[in-house]
Design goal:
Elements lengths: L5 H5 L19 H14 L1 H6 L7 H13 L23 H15 L41 H17 L8
Helix pairs in contact: 4-6, 5-6
């Protein structure tokens, strides 16, 4: 986790492999997301014009938080690699709250600071029997809970709002 360089992955160019598409490189990158959104805008211009074609920019939010963590501005987190259990799944607590706050900001066009982050601090809330059906959480993917403090919540929600407002694919214009 300490060695994980999010920026290296996020800023890498997408490399399409037409012979074996699932072996394309850097599909989790800004370049890939930008290309995808531009192709969707070209294919569905009416949806783009009306704001019905939107991106929830989780990758950009993680990139911005990684920069803040490395600068010592996200208390107790030294880099975004701490958010992951295995490089693909995010831990419970702060990482999952970050994703939820980003979804909320795009869907409702509001700063996510009003969300109750405390529910993400109780690992019992992730149990499948607490989810509306159908719902499923694979418990090993939750990893160790990263607690959300008021300070961490503020950094996350302010960062989410900044990224969502600046990203051209969210259709959020406060």
């Amino acid at each position: 986790m300490r060695k994980f360089n999010y920026a290296e992955h996020w800023l890498a160019p997408y490399e399409w492999n037409p012979q074996v598409p699932w072996e394309s490189k850097n599909a989790h990158s800004r370049d890939y997301i930008t290309r995808l959104m531009e192709e969707l805008r070209a294919k569905y211009p009416a949806l783009a014009r009306t704001g019905h074609l939107r991106l929830i920019p989780n990758g950009e939010v993680f990139f911005a938080l990684d920069q803040k963590a490395r600068a010592g501005q996200l208390p107790g987190i030294d880099n975004i690699g701490r958010f992951y259990t295995d490089g693909g799944h995010v831990r419970c607590g702060l990482p999952r709250f970050t994703l939820a706050a980003t979804c909320y900001a795009v869907m409702f066009g509001e700063h996510p600071g009003r969300l109750d982050y405390t529910i993400y601090n109780d690992k019992e809330n992730y149990r499948n029997d607490k989810l509306p059906q159908p719902g499923y959480v694979h418990w090993p993917d939750l990893g160790e809970l990263i607690p959300i403090t008021p300070e961490r919540a503020k950094v996350v929600t302010d960062t989410v709002w900044q990224v969502v407002c600046e990203n051209p694919y969210t259709s959020v214009h406060p």
